[in-house]
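Q: What does the assembled structure look like for these inputs?
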Amino acid sequence: MTTSDHPRRSPPDLRPDYAAAAAHAQRTAVLASVEALLGWDEQTMLPQGGGAYRADQVAAVASLVHSARTDPAQRDRLERLAASMEGGKGDWSDEQRATVVRLLRDLHKQLRLPPRLVEEIARACIDGQQAWVDARRHSDWKGFAPKLARLVELKREQATAQSPDLDPYDALLDDYEPGARSSDVSALFDRLRPGIVALLRACRGSTCPPRDDLLKQHVPRSAQERFVRMVAERIGFDFTRGRLDSSEHPFCSTAGPHDCRLTTRWDESYLPTALFGVLHEAGHGLYEQGLRPDAFGLPRGEAASLGVHESQSRLWENLVGRSLPFWEWCLPLARKAFPAAFSDASPEAVQRSMLVVGPSLIRVEADEVTYNLHIMLRFDLERALIRGDLAVADLPTAWDDRFEQDFGIRPGTAAEGVLQDIHWSGGLIGYFPTYTLGNVYSAQMMAAVETDLPELSTHIATGQFAPLLHWLRERVHAQGRLLDPGPLVTNATGRPVSERWLMESLWNRYGPAHGVGTSPPA
Amino acid sequence: MTTSDHPRRSPPDLRPDYAAAAAHAQRTAVLASVEALLGWDEQTMLPQGGGAYRADQVAAVASLVHSARTDPAQRDRLERLAASMEGGKGDWSDEQRATVVRLLRDLHKQLRLPPRLVEEIARACIDGQQAWVDARRHSDWKGFAPKLARLVELKREQATAQSPDLDPYDALLDDYEPGARSSDVSALFDRLRPGIVALLRACRGSTCPPRDDLLKQHVPRSAQERFVRMVAERIGFDFTRGRLDSSEHPFCSTAGPHDCRLTTRWDESYLPTALFGVLHEAGHGLYEQGLRPDAFGLPRGEAASLGVHESQSRLWENLVGRSLPFWEWCLPLARKAFPAAFSDASPEAVQRSMLVVGPSLIRVEADEVTYNLHIMLRFDLERALIRGDLAVADLPTAWDDRFEQDFGIRPGTAAEGVLQDIHWSGGLIGYFPTYTLGNVYSAQMMAAVETDLPELSTHIATGQFAPLLHWLRERVHAQGRLLDPGPLVTNATGRPVSERWLMESLWNRYGPAHGVGTSPPA
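A:
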């Protein structure tokens, strides 16, 4: 004890503040998960006439979520905590420090958004998605354009409000891929592009390219439903903590720490539509189910970014689902599920038939190689929209021109072109580049897994997916979002993020299948 | 203009207050409908592991709904409005007066409930329902008893808090059947009981009773799904504003003015399980779809009571669905839907096979005649529970003893006895008597319809349900809850509420089918 006139006070105990801040974040997540459920229900269950009222419901809950996320008491707590941590001060763990930094960063972003804007965006997104469903069905660009114009305007307003220091497009991108900047993404895409273009050119010049005729078999919907559910279960998706339903566009939505919902769509003459839809969404679902349930709503228990999320879906969809070992395991099961189909095919033939490459109009049906060109197109167009370099009215022509330039074909209708994706209609701008970032991360992770698990092919060929899933759980899922995606991927794989592994992975699989070698001509 | 020193002020214009009060009620309904959707999803979609978190979600939204329903600004507005209307004062329409009276009555009830109690009840109901699902499956009374004991305690606390002037059971009953008092209900039941007991005795003495063997036919689930959906659609249920799903216990839930959701359950060896489930729930759904969508959340656009709601479901289930004209229309369609079943049956035989009467353990499978005895049993037991005359621990024995006395058989397991109904597990105490009130109202309405629409039988036999639905829409649905159920039924039918029509309806249909005449022996 000091008897000085000006005693140095011991710092106040902020542990109750930390507990209260964490509890607040988790209570907010309860409401946010209700909003997520409203969205899931809208896409899967809502009767046709229910749309307008659903918009009111979402807007009401979104506004409550926004209030919770901008609660001044929470801001004060977090600011006190951040001050007590400055420069490494205080007896705080790394996790506690990262938690406070991330919660406070999120809160400041939200605080800069006026509640009016939040509610308008929520409403415009619902309106936009509903208009999009009809517009795509009837290839009616004119019916959709005003909704998109309004959304672009609102998203630009959001970007400027929430991150005044950033380029508006970067502000939106940062919401999906924390720390990513469009100049870096653009540079990465520029390094990736020539190798992909070279591979595409080489594949198109192949004299004996793979063909997917043997996949075009009649597969009854009910048998497909049982089969893809079995596959999802075998790779590790836990149906006591999740579901699988149908929707216009496949997605994965989380309505609680033990409530992860996948959707897919069905084509009775082409099994890969549902199967790869489910492998992809189950990849997302495995990530969600691998997050720490007790930390639901806290950075420790949340996904790192959309890019990292996409790395998980792509890893299961492409790097597992299109591999030979997978079909060594899966084909006998498919033959049992669909006795009238696939009876004469070998695993090698089926797997090779999944490596068809060629220009196609629809992104979600594109092959692994051209997929990234679809993304680069959208990335450039949406940047131009947000920057004001491109008017919404000019978007269809800009889309078709660029498409023709990249792919050598021109969409015949808006539904096959600019109207094909749900994203923009739901206000998801700055989201597309995360798909290719996900491809980049997934290839880099798979390269690391193959080093760490030399028996991986044997495991997969015998339906043992647990070792792979365990690796992902430990290195990726259990990490939450305490790190930005770049450092997270670097830690998980032991190497800085690079497009190299994706390039190698694509050439190593698609080159030999097309008889064109495993690397671009020198 | 007066120049007096004390000018008589003209009354303030309260029209903006009225508009604000109505808007507030409709905004509150948006949140309440989200709570309803959470409940629907829990019963139909929620993965097994999602239960605990769903309880958190429901509790959070219920607490927000409660805050909105007890908003002091709304209370002040409504009290100003009520004062301006006192004794017929002011330039207000009847609808405006009734709206203010009802909104204020609801608000005062809610205001007397502490938020803590509201949240505890919401949570205990979710816990209770989840425990009940397991308990019923395993006939495990002990696992469920503590949940029920807690619920009874909380409901008693609720009753005393919200209506201190009423007997606690009447306070709960009033929530479901506004204005009803258990002494009146008890007297009505006492008048009804002897005629039912006499009919049951007469039917059991029949030498040639109807048999339902011909209904026990294999009917594949997928064909049933198509069939019952078609029936619901034909009687007028609008699937662009609703859905049909499966659940443990059939129900009808409204998640918005254009979003009414029915459920049923399926038995592949007994079509009536799903068919009457759907006719019943679609009866509720037709009522919900007949309410004024623009007045969703206002007394003008809300159902009058559970009894009136039940009158609609029973009317379609029993008075339409078990009638000969209905089967003249429906049987050819059933033959087409299920080619392997019903091929030799006549409409008369099928309809008569639906008039089997006899003691049975399960309420939801009971015939129309004994059904009311099931209700009287529950009414007496739940009154005793709330009054404290019966302990939860003694409930199974009390149930079984009373059951044996009324029906002459004793349940073998708790699942066949005290655990069979979902209601108490979800805090629905005071709810059961509304089923028999619904039967009473439905018979009285059908008697009035038959007078007003002499061609009704012909309409039904040719699948024309619109005239009947139109009568119900005008006289009942479009009335909302501006009147208490008694006056509403009296207005709709031109006669005071009486058990007479139900008694006559049962004797007129079941008596001849059993060859025992159409009235009790003198």
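Chain B is about 60% helix and 0% strand.
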